[in-house]
Prior knowledge:
Blueprint: E1 17-21, E2 24-27, H1 28-44, E3 52-56, H2 61-72, E4 76-79, H3 86-96, E5 100-103, H4 108-112, H5 116-120, E6 124-127, E7 137-138, E8 158-164, E9 172-177, H6 178-188, E10 199-202, H7 209-222, E11 225-228, H8 234-243, E12 248-251, H9 253-261, E13 275-278, H10 285-295, E14 299-301, E15 303-304, E16 311-314, E17 327-328, E18 333-337, E19 350-355, E20 362-363, H11 367-373, E21 380-388, E22 394-398, E23 404-406, E24 409-411, H12 413-420, E25 426-436, E26 440-449, H13 457-465, E27 476-479, H14 493-496
Parallel strand pairs: 1-11, 3-4, 3-5, 5-6, 6-7, 10-11, 12-13, 13-14, 26-27
Antiparallel strand pairs: 1-2, 8-9, 9-20, 15-16, 16-17, 18-19, 19-21, 21-22, 23-24, 25-26
Helix pairs in contact: 1-2, 6-7, 9-10
Amino acid sequence: MNVNLAQIIEGHPADSTALISRGRITTYGALRDQVALARGALSELGVGKGDVVVLLCGNSRYFVVAYLAALGLGAVACPLNPTSPAPEIEKELSVVRPRAVVIEPAAFDMWRRIDASVAGAIGAVIATEGHSLDGAHTFEELPGTAPVPIVEVDPSHHAVYMFTSGTAGSPKAAILTHGNLSANIDQTNTVDRIRPSDVVFGVLPIYHIFGLNVVIGLTLAVGGSVVLVQRFDPVSAMETIAERAVTVMPGAPSMWIALAQLDHPSRDSFAGVRLALSGASRLPVTTAQSMKDRFGLEIREGYGLTEASPVVTNSIGTEWLPGSVGTPVKDLELRVVDEDGEDVLVGDTGEIWVRGPNVFIGYLDDPEATARVLTADGWLRTGDIGVIDDDGHLFIVDRAKDLVIVSGFNVFPAEVEGVINTHPDVLESSVIGTAHPHTGESVRAYVVTRPGVHLDEDALIDHCRSRLARYKCPTKVLFVEALPRNLIGKVTRYALR
């Protein structure tokens, strides 16, 4: 069977609203025309089946058009965080080796810092607007190109390369196929989910898998509307909810924490929101209960990960149970196992394993990392620790032991430590996550300096910010004489915690 995920926008009424971005409405008819023309433009620039198109864009119409255009050609879309510093982007580009890059103005300065040898290997650079990048094409030029039809691809054809620290250590590109992403849309598109009449609040970054395949993929597949929001601000969010009659609000816990702390004008502030969703990391029970008590809003928490495209469980359509991430989506097997891979008893904790059509096929060019998380018979070892109650509800107890999740984004300590250790005054370091009231967790670094030197905390944080995305950088640095170690000399992060 041949499929192409780009077909999710086909068949909906031409005059129905698909996107609202910067106050501009794009109907499904207009979106289909724009995507067809963009396919033609990418094709003329040499992009074809199997080529990689990197997207360095935030939540905008340009991202959606370029994403669907790349998929429609059979190319592989690779969304990257446009706020990341040049060294991090260079590493990611070297892994996926793109044929083209689509870039927004906010990332122009970063792009100018990309090593010339890396940038020179890319066939085409397309600026979404403006023309201040030397040698770049502009998105405004694309409508003059003849449209190109969607190509058919096999379900196993690569659709997206999504970087994740995930369950396998340092950031790697997870391979998500057309079949994986389509399956997860189908798995989550059941009763009481997103409807064609819904207006979805699109503040989750769509270069993140939750935003990409739930906010964009699922909403467009059912014919709903997405209000694309570039940056979250609780006050303006409330204005948007009222102005655009938002009915569905997916968000990370940091969004709900901020909204719960805001002084809203009345209990009716969320009266039009019929579905409130939380994912990417654990939602504090106190926040869920506060939103319920103050506004009558039941936030439905779910669980997922990039390698599962991403939704594994959700709590929609079940009894509201704060703290639970719900039950598995359809056509997905879920087990909680002990260290030997044997199922634990109901009520006992263990590692969560999942298997289904939404589970990824591996990490790009990294069979060893793939083998660590995928069993021979297709089970994904999530690295997350959970427990299932007598009614089948899943609760997340812990997660991959070293992973830090900041506002829903994965941070692997080894990557941060590697950057800290490049500072000439640092002897060694260890990084952990600590609880944070707004972002869920924040990054804390313990640092041993070289003998006889004084290193300023702010200087070390600035050193990290020039090399890592901001959410990966330590918010606190503690200088210590030595790091705790076990008998074989390995640093014990649990002792730091």
